[in-house]
Each structure stands twice: as C-alpha cells, then as structure tokens.
Amino acid sequence: MIRLGYACISMATKNNPNKKTTVKQLEKLTPAERLKKLRKVLQTNFFNLMDLLAYNLEQNIFLYRLPSEFVPMATHPIAADWDWASEFLWDFEKAGAYIREHGIRLTSHPGHYSILNSPNPKVLEATVKDFAYHAQVFDLMGLDDNSVLVTHVGGVYGDKASSLARFQENFASLPESIKKRLVVENDDTSFTMRDVLELCEALSVPMVFDYHHHTCANEGENWLDYLPRILATWGDRTPKMHFSSPKSEKEFRAHADEIVLEDFLAFVASLSDYDVDVMLECKNKDTALLNLRAGLTAGSCPVG
Questions:
Q1: Cα separation of 82 and 84, whole Å?
Q2: Which of 11, 141, 241, 242 could link 287 by a cystine bridge, Cβ 3.0 to 4.6 Å?
Q3: Taking a C-beta distance cutoff of 8 angstroms, is the pair 32, 81 a contact?
Q4: What residue ranges carry the coiled-coil annotation (predicted)?
C-alpha cells in the first residue's frame, strides 16, 4: 500500500499549526507579556493541529509533516526561560493520543540551517539543539520511531569524503533521543542517492529517497537497482520517500505546484509490492495530493 502525505500547510484551511511571532515583536514586550504571547501562539497551534488532523482523516490522509515552527522560538535564547514542555504537557499528550488512535504518521524536516556535518562548532551546537527540539515534540506526544526527523548530509566544504566522515563522527555523539529518529535524505546538488545510501548503511539509519533530487543529482545510477537496499535501511519501520515534479526545464530543481501524473505513475509502479509512505513536496500541498489521487483512482492505481 502506498500512502500519500503533504508538508505543513493545508490549502483547504487558514488554520494551520504554523503560527509564529518574531524576535523583534517579543523584544518590545516585558518578560510577562512575552510569555503570554508565546503561550497564546502555541495554544493556537495546538488548536489548529487538532483541526487539521481531523480534516486529514476526513480526506483519508495519514501522513503529515509538522511545521518546524510549531513551538514558537523553541530553540531561541529569547524563550530560554519558558518551560513549554511542562506547561503544555496535557496538550502534547492529547494530540499524541489522537495521532496514535487514528494511525497517523507525523514527521518533521528540521530547517536547512541545521547542518550536522558543519565544521563550525556554533552551527553544530545549534543543529543538535534544533534536532533535540523536534525529537522532544514527538517524545512528548508518545509517538513511535516512525515519526522521523529528516535531514540532509549538509555541505561538501571542498572535500566530500571528509564531509561524510564528519557527519558520521557528529552523528555518533548525538543523544539517543535524536539518533532513534534521525533519517537522511539525498539532496539535489551535492550528495547523491548512492552517497546517502552508503552513509545510512554505515550508520544503520534509514534513508529517505527523494526521486526529484535523484533526477537533479546523480552519476547515472538507476534508482531501481538500489531500491532493495534503500528499503532495507528501514528495518521494521515503514519506508518513507519524497516525490515532486520539477517546476520547469529552466527551474528544474524547484518544485512544481502539482504532481505530473505520468511521472508519478512511472515512479509508483515500482513500489506496488511494498508498503511505502510518499511525502509529496509541491506548492499546492493537500490540493495537489487530492488531485493526484483522483487521477490515480481513475487509472485504478492503489494508493491511499
């Protein structure tokens, strides 16, 4: 069974769990006002998350990427005195119970500024802090290790081999709460499918195969030749992949608004014997998912 999902924002509702504030806004407030503002934003995000999850269930969508800004300023020094985890424990547990009850898979994709193979100690410190925040959210919800944190390898820094080795070294020092959730995705410029697969096999962590990225950055490999190895990195967990269509020939690496049906049919035909979750990365989010599903249904392609 192939299940489809989308990232962060529903086009069907304005009530998405990505409400936020800015440092500039918070700096104008007293400490008490600042806490009130942060609490209000997070409470709104919880309300919106529950509404959005209910909408997803109505649409039979069981894969969803939680926005990184769900907890406002979670890793910023301006909110260092705010114990959001304890204050909102009931809300986390309520959301987690709903997610588990309905078989929803919640995942996340920490920001592009989180780079585990960075040679800069400050960047590395901020990266670990960001990963820890994302992992803590899923831990507070009581979600299993199918709720993964997706990251890229990072920068090449003039030497790919050294950069891959540094990723392994820094991964080894991560706390277990992050290690059990971190998965690695091939990117569209630097680290190919084979680079990432070999890294994941060395670390015994799952690989997220991104089809679009593979078409952008490869060395002529046929991804189907590597499919059994990619799936094997997931062990007992459900494999997760990413799919998007290029915006245009000129802007090939950019994501299109919708998914090109013919491209997806060719991709998914090779996965018919497997249970795989496919995150669609397109501008029209859930609308694109529903449009794709309608096209697939018309062609009798079994997806969820």
A1: 6
A2: 11
A3: no
A4: none
- In this prediction, residue 33 has a pLDDT band, given cuts at 50, 70 and 90, of very high
- Give the pLDDT confidence of 242-259 residue by residue, as tens digits: 999 987 677 776 778 999
Q: Is residue 85 part of a domain?
A: yes
81 lies in some domain: yes
Between CA 139 and CA 37 the distance in angstroms is 25
pLDDT tens, 39-79?
999 999 999 999 999 999 999 999 999 999 999 999 999 99
Do residues 282 and 288 touch, judged by C-beta distance below 8 A? yes
Amino acid occupying residue 19: K
Number of separate helices (H) and strands (E) present in the chain: 12, 8
Does 27 reside within a domain? yes
State the Cα–Cα distance between residues 254 and 128, nearest whole angstrom. Answer: 28
> How much is the pLDDT for 178?
98
Question: Domain of 6: which CATH number?
Answer: 3.20.20.150
CA–CA dist 190, 211 (Å, integer): 15
- For residue range 164-203, list pLDDT tens digits in order: 999 999 999 999 999 999 999 999 999 999 999 999 999 9
The count of domains in the chain is: 1
Per-residue pLDDT, 304: 57
Which domain does 258 fall in, by range? 2-298
Please state, in angstroms and rounded to a whole number, the distance separating the CA atoms of residues 73 and 141. Answer: 19
